[in-house]
Amino acid sequence: MRRVTGIGGIFFKAKDPKALAEWYRVHLGIEIEAWGGAAFPWASSDNPPGVGTTAWSPLAADTSYFEPSQAAFIVNYRVADLRALLAALRSEGCNVVDKIDESEFGNFGWVIDPEGNKAELWEPPAGQ
C-alpha cells in the first residue's frame, strides 16, 4: 500500500498571521491569496500536466486546529487511501485521531507522532 505521496501543505502558528504573510510576500515573493496563505502549483516544465498544489499558511497563534499537539506547526501529507492508511496505523499501534473530515477538498485524518506532533493526512478528491 502506498502511504504518503507528497506534502499537501505546511501550516504554522503566528502572532499576527496577516503581517507575517505580508512579510513573506514582500521579502520572499510568496503570492498571498485572499484566504491568507499561498498555493504552490505542481505543474512545471518537468511536470506540465501536474494537478494539485502545496498550501502554505500562517494561522492565528491561538488556533485549536493543531490540538492535542502543542507544536506550532502541522504538516499536511497527501495520501493515496486515507481509510486504509488509518487502519494500518491503528494496527501498528499508532495514536490515530478518531475522526475523519470529508469535504469538497477531500478527506482528512490525523495521527499523533511519538513526540506529540499532529500530522494531517489528506486524500485529495479524485483527479487531483
UniProtKB/TrEMBL annotation:
Ranges for domain VOC: 6-124
Pfam assignment, any one: Glyoxalase_6
InterPro entries: Glyas_Bleomycin-R_OHBP_Dase (IPR029068), Glyoxalase_6 (IPR041581), VOC_core (IPR037523)
Superkingdom: Bacteria
Coiled-coil region(s): none
Stated name of the protein: VOC family protein
Species lineage: Bacteria, Pseudomonadati, Pseudomonadota, Gammaproteobacteria, Lysobacterales
